[in-house]
Amino acid sequence: MADEDKHHKTMSWKSSLFGHKDVDIFRDTPIRYLGYANEVGEAFKTHIPKSLYYGSYVVASSYCLADAISKGRKIYEEGSALPMAVRRRRTIETAVEAGVWQGLASVIIPGFTINRICVSSRFILKQVARSMPLHTQTWLTTLVGLSMIPVIIKPIDRGVDYLMEGALNMLRELGVVSENVDIE
């Protein structure tokens, strides 16, 4: 077995989706920051209209959906030599896997985390800085939330990688998700 073939068979689900030589506009360009729009919305929640807050989730969710569609389309295009049923199944599985990963790693977990960080920091400020004006407390809370975004990204991504790998391995053992099929 050639080294390249051996490497392909040992790649994780994520490296098989994202580990290609082409530039992935959803991972390797500033477009990636659209996935963090909801975290910014969470940090600014007390300062912006609800429509902008909800809009931040629309932007981040649209990013996730676009990435999932892009990954599925790529697998579909690369699978032209495969039987149509296998090609469609791999396309759907890839799009769903990418969508679930992005949904968890870009929207759900970080949004919840920043929300809880802001709520906690606001609570703490109310307790320890009672003489501080409320306006100042809300802006400090916002700054704490914004400053935590870069801190939480890598641990959440790694945690979602671990979760996805375990879930997909279990689903493969149950026969729900197919094994990777080499595209030649």
TrEMBL record:
<dbReference type="InterPro" id="IPR019560">
    <property type="entry name" value="Mitochondrial_18_kDa_protein"/>
</dbReference>
<dbReference type="Pfam" id="PF10558">
    <property type="entry name" value="MTP18"/>
</dbReference>
<protein>
    <recommendedName>
        <fullName>Mitochondrial fission process protein 1</fullName>
    </recommendedName>
</protein>
<comment type="similarity">
    <text>Belongs to the MTFP1 family.</text>
</comment>
<dbReference type="GO" id="GO:0005739">
    <property type="term" value="C:mitochondrion"/>
</dbReference>
<dbReference type="GO" id="GO:0000266">
    <property type="term" value="P:mitochondrial fission"/>
</dbReference>
